[in-house]
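Reading a protein record of the kind used here takes little practice once its layout is understood. Each number in the token line that follows is a code from a learned vocabulary of backbone shapes. One such record is shown here in full, so that the layout can be seen directly:
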Amino acid sequence: MAADKLHPDQPPVEHQINIELGEQEAQGIYSNLVIISHSMAEFVLDFTRILPGLPRARVHARILMTPQHAKLFWMALGENIRKYEQQYGEIRVESQPSLSGSFRVH
């Protein structure tokens, strides 16, 4: 019998997920450009780093998500940006030209 049925007056216990962070992943990867593409079934996020004076950028991480997880990610990121700006002030973004069509994937 489930624990919440034994004690109906107590709120249900939420399940905790333990997330393991390996030593290499804990160091993180810096990215200053994300290339996003999608199909009907998935979103693909390619995290790259562009350095001044270098004509190439290497994909350092590729993340694939279902459309539902992509939207949940977008919502969570938006919420965290809102909290950041409440604490530290508005994040200013300079207008940048579109990169559409200005790069080739090798």
In short: The longest strand covers residues 58-65. The chain has a mean pLDDT of 87. Residues 4 and 47 are 43 Å apart (CA to CA). The helical segments are 3-6, 23-27, 67-88.
